[in-house]
Amino acid sequence: MNNWLQRWHGMAPREQWLAFSVGLVVGALLYMLLLGDPLSARLAKQQASYKVTEARRLEAQTGLADLQAKLAADPNIPYRSALLAASASREELISQIDQNTAELVTPQKMKAVLAELLRSQPRLRLVGLESFSEPMQLPGAAPVKLEPGAEPAPVTLYRHGLHLQLQGGYFDLLAYLQAVQASGWKLNWDSLDYQVGEGGPSQAKISLKLYTLSRQAGWVGV
Fold first, then answer.
1. What is the DSSP string of 108-165?
2. CATH number assigned to the domain comprising residue 190
3. Fewer C-beta within 10 Å: the chain N or C terminus?
4. Mean pLDDT of the chain
C-alpha cells in the first residue's frame, strides 16, 4: 500500500489526473458489466411482463363488458314475442312455449351441468349456491268456449335458476362463462356482478344468476 502511495506522490499532477480518470472509466465499465446490464435486463423483463399482464387484464375487462351488455338485454324477448303471436288459442300458446323451451337445459340437468363445468376451473371457488323457481307473467290467450261451470287451466311458464356466489379472477370467470356458452346447453342469463375487494383481482367476489324455462313447476335443487 505504501509503495502505491509513494508512486502516486511521485507522479506529476497531470499524471495523477490521468490515472484518476482511467480509474473512473474502469470503475464505470465494471459497474455496467457486473450491475448495470443485469439490472437493465431485469427491469426490461419486468416491464414486458407488466405490459402482457395489463393487455390480458384489458382483454378480460372487454370480454366481461360484452357479457354484461348481453345480460342487460331482456333474454325473454323471443319468448314473449312468440307467446304474443300464439294468442289465437290456448293450444297454440302451449305449443309455442314447448317449441321455444325444447332446446333449453332441463331444471333437473342444470345444476349438474354448471357443477361439471366449474370443476374444470380449479382457481374459481364456489362460495355459495341458491336455487330459485318463480312463475313468469305471460300474455293471455284468446278465450275458448268451455262447458258451463268449467274454468280454463292457466298457462304458466316457470323460471328455474341457480344463484352462484364465486371467488376468483378475471380470466377464471371468463373461461367459465365461455365454457357455459360453448357447452351446447342453452341457459338464460339473469345477472352478473364482479367486485374486486381487499384480496385483489385474483380473489374477486362474483355473483352469477342463470336460469332455464319450463312449463313444469319443478325445483332445481341444491
1. HHHHHHHHHHHHT-TTSEEEEEEEEEEEEP-PPPPP----TT--PPPP-EEEEEEEEE
2. 3.30.70.60
3. N
4. 69
First to last CA, the chain: 84
Helix axes 37-72, 170-182, angle to 10 degrees: 40
Least confident of 58-72, 106-120, 208-222: 58-72
Q: What is the pLDDT of residue 205?
A: 93
Same domain, 119 and 16: no
pLDDT band at 28 (very low <50, low <70, confident <90, very high): low
Which uninterrupted H or E stretch holds 75?
none
Q: What span, in angstroms and rounded, lies between the C-alpha atoms of 176 and 58? A: 18
> Last residue of a domain, which of 58, 73, 88?
73
What's the pLDDT tens digit per position in 136-160?
Answer: 765 554 444 444 554 555 557 788 8
Separation CA 119–CA 101 (nearest Å):
27
Assigned C-alpha cell, 208: 352469477
Asked if residues 172 and 208 have their Cβ atoms less than 8 Å apart, the reply is no
**Hey, how many other C-beta atoms are within 10 angstroms of the C-beta on 196?**
13
146 assigned to some structural domain? no
pTM: 0.55
* 115 and 108 Cβ atoms separated by less than 8 Å: no
